Amino acid sequence: MDSLLRSEKMTLCQMFLQSEAAYTCVSELGELGLVQFRDLNPDVNAFQRKFVNEIRRCEEMERKLRFLEKEINKDGIPMLNTGDNPDAPAAREMIDLETTFEKLENEMKEVNSNSEALKRNFLELTELKHILRKTQTFFDEALFHHQALHDPSMTEERIGLLGDEQTVRPGQTMRLGFVAGVILRERIPSFEVMLWRICRGNVFLRQAEIDSPMEDPVTGDNVHKSVFIIFFQGEQLKARIKKICEGYRATLYPCPETQTERREMAIGVMTRIEDLNTVLGQTQDHRHRVLVAAAKNIKVWFIKVRKIKAIYHTLNMFNLDVTQKCLIAECWCPVSDLDRIQHALRRGTERSGSSVPCIINRMQTHMVPPTYNRCNKFTQGFQNIVDAYGVAAYREVNPAPFTCITFPFLFAVMFGDMGHGLIMFLFALFLVVKEKSLESKRNSNEIFRTFFGGRYIILLMGAFSVYTGFMYNDIFSKPLNFFGSQWAVTHGDPHYSIEELYRNEKIGFDPNQTFLGSPYPMGIDPIWQFAFNKIAFTNSLKMKMSVILGVSQMFFGIALSYFNHRYFNKPLNLIFDFIPMIIFLFCMFGYLIILLFVKWIKYSPSQSHDAPSLLIGLIDMFLFNYAKYVSPGSPVRDDQKQFIYNGQQGFQSFLVVLAVLCVPWMMLGKPLYIRYMKKYGQRADFQMVPQDEEEEEEVMFTTSPNVVSPTNYSFNDGKFKHQPLSVNSGDLLGGGGSEEVVHNLESNGALHTEEAVEEEHVDLSEIFIHQAIHTIEFCLGCISHTASYLRLWALSLAHAQLSEVLWTLVFRIGFGLPKTYGSIILFFIFQIWAGMTVLILVLMEGLSAFLHALRLHWVEFQSKFYDGSGHMFTPFSFSHIIDGGLDE
Amino acid sequence: MACLGPKCSLYYMLISIWGIIMLALMGIFFQIRSIALFEDIKVDEKEWAMANFSKSYVQEKYEDNAINCWIAAGIYLVLFAWSFFQYKLNARQNYEMS
C-alpha cells in the first residue's frame, strides 16, 4: 500500500568492486536495471577518464556495424530481428568482436572497390559496344554521301598516288577525320552549340541516343547517355574538338576506320563483356553471401556493442581506490531491492572468477533521493501523465493511482456518449488484445505509438464514456428507452387533447399532471429528447454535477495534502494550512453541495415552483442580503424567496464569518508562530515529534535543521561526504565484517531535503510574503477552480450538441426517402456520417476532452497537494539502452 | 485481382461492419416505430394533413425507412464480403512477396 501511494524508499549506496570483477558486476546490474550510478568525477574531462580507450574501441565497432548495416540495406537483405537479448559479452570477447568486424569491414571494402573497378570497366565496354553499333549507321550514311559526290572507284588514296593535281583538291577536302564518344544526354544541346561556334560550323556532328540507361559505377544511379560522332578536317580542328569533349566530360573511344576492323573490334568487345559479366556476377554473389551472413547477426552485435559501451561508460563514473585494486561506485537504489542487487553482484563476482566479494554499503547523505514509482504497463500511462507535469518530490503522495480512475472519469463526463465511447473502447481493446504482436512490430509512426502507449488510458476512457453516455442517455445523440419513460399523458386529459395540439405549436407538460411520480431509474428520461427546453434541463443538471465532482475532487486533493504533512512531519502546515483550507472550502462550496442535494431531495413536483435558486442564494449569502426571504412553508410572492430551512440566515452568516476568519489564520498563523518560537527558542522540541508508526525505527525526513546535528552522524560522517572518495576499504571491511555486506540501519536517520536547510536561513519577512501569496492563491483558487470545473458541463454540452447537429444535418438526409433509391443514398450518407463521427466527434472532441481532463488534474487537482519538485530515478539498464538504440 | 489496397480494404471492412450492425438495428427500431426516430422519418405536415392525420400515413413512413435501412445494411454486407475478399487477397500477395 505504501509503495502505491508514495515512491520507493531510496538509499545511497557505495559499492566496492574488485577491478577484475567490476566489468561483470556492472553488466549484471545493467541486466537488473535497478541502480542509478552517480558520476563521481564530474569535473574530469571525458578524454581523461580511465576507460576512454575502450569506449573509443566500442565507437569504432559501432561505426563498422553501421557501415555493414548500410551495405545490407543497400542490397535489401532483410535483417533478422529475433528480439532476443544476448548477455553483455565478457570483456575479452570484445577483441573477438573487434577482429570479426575488422575482417568483415575489410572484406566489404575490398569487394566494393573490386566491383566498382569491374563496373567501370563494364561501363566502358558497353559504351564502346554502343558506339560501334551506332556509328555503323553514320558511316553507312557517310558512305552513301561519298558515293553521291564522287566516283566510287576514285578513293582519296588512289588519287593521291596518281598525283593528279586536278582531282586531289576535291579529294583532300573529303579526307575527313572523326572522333566518336559518349556523352550525357542532357549535355548534348549545349555541346552541339559549342562545337558549332568554336569550329565555325566546320564540323559535322551526328548523335544517337542509347536506349538502355547505364549504371554509374560510383553512385549506382542510372544515367542516360548518347553516342556522338564528329567528322572534321585537319589536325587543328581535332585538337579543338578534343578539348571541347574533355570540357563536356565526354568519353572518347578509339574507333577503327574500316568496317572490318570495326566488326572485329565489336566481336572482341562482346566477348570481353561476357567475361566481365560472369566475374561481376561472382563478385555480387560473394558480396551477397557475406552480407547475408552478417545480416543474421548484426542486431545481436549491435546490442552487444552497445552493452559493452554502456558498461565502460558506467565504469568511467567510478572512483579508483588508492591501491588501484578496486573501484568505488556510488549509486541510488530502492531499499527493497537491495537483496536482488547483492545477488547480482555475487553472480558478477562468480562469473569473473574473482575470489574477493564485492561490497555494497548504505551511506548517509544530505542529497534528495530520486523519485522511483514502480509501475506496471497499466499504471505506466497514468504515471506519465502525472510526471509530465512534474516528477513528485521524494516520498510525496503520488497522484497517479487516483488518476487511474479520476482521469478517465472526468474525461468521460465531457465525452458522454455510448456510441462514441464504444468506438473508443473497441479501438483500445484491439490495441490491448494485440499488444504483443503490435509491440514487436515496433511501428515507427509517432501518432500510432502515442495511441499505443496510452492504450490502457484510452480503454478506460472509452469504458467510462459508455457509462456516462448511459447516464446522459445518449447514443449517437439518440436516447434509449430502457426502462420506460416516467412521463405519460393520461388518455382523455383535457389539457393535452387534440384540440390543444391544433391550437398550440408546443405543449408544456405540467409535472404535477404527467409525471408518474418515480424518476427514470437510471440516467436521463428519454422523453427529454423532444422537449423544447431539453438543453435548459440538461444544463442545470450537468452544471450541478460538475460542481459536485469538482468540489469533491478539490476536497480530495486537500485531504491528500494531509498525508504529505503527516509524513514529512510538518504539524505547522497541518494546523495553519490544512485545517483552514478544509474549513474555507467547506464554508463556500461544501455547503453549496449540501444545498444541491437538499434541493434535489426536498422538493416534490408540486413544490417545484418554490425551489430556491442556489446560485442567487449563494450570492445573497455572501452579501448578507436576506431582506426578501420568507420562512420555509409560508406563501411566496413574486419578488420574494423562501428559506430552505429554519435558521438558515444564522447558519449561513456563521459560515461566511468562519470562511473570512480562515484567511488571517492561514496567512498569519504560521509566520507568527515561527517568530514566537524563534524568540523563545523552543522550536526544537516541537519538531522532534516522533514519526508515525509505519515508519518503525527509521526517521527519514525532518523539517527542522536542528535535528541534523553532527551527533546524528556518528557513523563515518566525516568519510562519506560526496567529494571524490578516498576511503580506505580495509577499514570498512574490518569494521563491517569482512565478507558480509555492511548495513547500518541504526544510523539511517535524518535524511532531509535541501528545502529544510534553506528554511533556516529564510528571513521572517520572506515567510510572511510566501504565506500571504500562498493564502491568496488558495482563496482565489477555490473560486476560480470551482468555476473551472464548469468546463465539465460546457464540454459535455458541446459534445452532445455537436453529435446532434451531425445527426440532423448529415444522417437525416438519408432517411424519409422513397423506397426506390432511398437505400442507396442511405448507404452513401452513412459512410459520410460515420467518417465524420470518427474524425470530428471521436478524434477531435476526444482530444479536446483529454486536454481539459489533463488540465483539471494538473491545475485544479494537483495544485492542492502536489509539489512536483523531485527528480526522476533513471536506473542504469540495458533494456533502456537497447530500446533507445533501436529508436535512433 | 486486388482493386483495393490493404488499408483501403481494411477501412471498408470496418465501416461495413459498423454499417451492418447499426443499419440493421435502426431498421428494427423503425419497424417497431421508435418515437426517438420520429423526427427522422420526415413527416410532411401538408401531406399528413391531406391524409387527415391518419396513423397509417406515419406507419407507412416508418416501414419505408425500415426497409431502406435493411437494404442499405444488405449493401454493406456485400461491401463487407468484397472488401474481406480483397483484404485476404492483399494479405496473400504480401505473403508471396516476402
Automatic annotation (TrEMBL), chain A:
InterPro entries: V-ATPase_116kDa_su, V-type_ATPase_116kDa_su_euka. It is found in: Membrane. One of its GO terms (cellular component) is vacuolar proton-transporting V-type ATPase, V0 domain. It is a multi-pass membrane protein. Signal peptide: none annotated. It comes from the Eukaryota. Residues 44-128 form a coiled coil. Keywords: Coiled coil, Hydrogen ion transport, Ion transport, Membrane, Transmembrane, Transmembrane helix, Transport. The keyword ATP-binding does not apply. GO terms for molecular function: ATPase binding; proton-transporting ATPase activity, rotational mechanism. Belongs to the V-ATPase 116 kDa subunit family. It holds the Pfam family V_ATPase_I. The gene is LOC106051824. It comes from Biomphalaria glabrata (Bloodfluke planorb). The chain crosses the membrane at residues 409-433, 454-472, 545-563, 575-598, 651-669, 821-844. The keyword Kinase does not apply. This is V-type proton ATPase subunit a.
UniProtKB/TrEMBL annotation, chain B:
The keyword Translocase does not apply. The keyword Membrane applies. Coiled coil: none annotated. GO terms for molecular function: RNA endonuclease activity. GO terms for cellular component: membrane. Keywords: Membrane, Transmembrane, Transmembrane helix. Its main location: membrane. It is found in: Membrane. The chain crosses the membrane at residues 12-32, 65-85. It is a multi-pass membrane protein. InterPro entries: RNase_K. Belongs to the RNase K family. This is Ribonuclease kappa-B. It comes from Biomphalaria pfeifferi.
